[in-house]
Amino acid sequence: MYIWAIFLKLHAINDEYLYEIVANFRNQKTPAINFDYQRGRLEISGIRSMPEIATNFYRPVINWLREYAQAPATGSTVLSLKLEYFNTGSGKCLVEMFKILDQLAAEGHPVYLKWFYEEDDEDMLQSADDIEILLKNITLERIPYQDPA
Questions:
Q1: How far apart are CA 147 and CA 57, in angstroms?
Q2: Which of 49, 60, 86, 132 is deepest in the core (most CB within 10 A)?
Q3: 100: buried, middle or exposed (CB in 10 Å: 19+, 13-18, 0-12)?
Q4: How far apart are CA 111 and CA 5, in angstroms?
Q5: Handedness of CA 66, 72, 77, 80 (dihedral sign)
Q6: Paired residues of 116 in beta bridges
Q7: Is residue 12 within a helix (H) or strand (E), and if so which, with residue range?
Q8: Other beta carbons less than 10 A from residue 119's beta carbon
Q9: pLDDT at residue 90 above 60?
Q10: Which of 57, 53, 82, 77 is nearest to 6 (CA)?
Q11: Strand boundaries in 15-145, DSSP class E
Q12: What percentage of the chain has pLDDT greater than the value 90?
């Protein structure tokens, strides 16, 4: 069982309620998640995403993303994804998130997906290619990096 904490903050800005999720997961099986509503920045990063029950892990994030899509930040939305591995359950949840963002982009809000992958990781690069087929309105940028080890 993994240990995690989600902090949901409710802000009143310009008479609108804005949600911000900051989640810190302290396990090698789950990523860190940081969503900044005001800047329109979403980040999912870590070594891997393979929680025991991916839907339980990602459900609060997906729900927040649905709320965000109703009143997105001014400007563009950027999702940065930097994982070395994700399992099938996590992949399904990520696709659900991408579809929410793709619909947001279809409605005229610019959305960018930054897909970070180790430069020699053909599997993660192929996953980006597979995801890009599903996305009709999001700009996907593949960003290779070198493992510092």
A1: 27
A2: 49
A3: middle
A4: 27
A5: negative
A6: 82, 143
A7: strand 4-13
A8: 10
A9: yes
A10: 57
A11: 16-25, 32-36, 41-49, 77-86, 111-118, 139-145
A12: 64
Separation of alpha carbons 52 and 44, rounded Å: 18
Contacts with 14 (C-beta within 8 Å, 6 or more apart), sequence order:
none
What sign does the CA torsion over 133, 139, 144, 147 have?
negative
CATH number for 98: 3.30.750.24
How many structural domains compose the chain?
Answer: 1
% of the chain residues with pLDDT over 70: 81
Backbone angles phi and psi of 125, in degrees to 5 = -65, -40
Total residue count of the chain as it appears in this document: 149
User: Which residues span the domain enclosing 129?
Assistant: 4-145
DSSP letter, residue 79: E
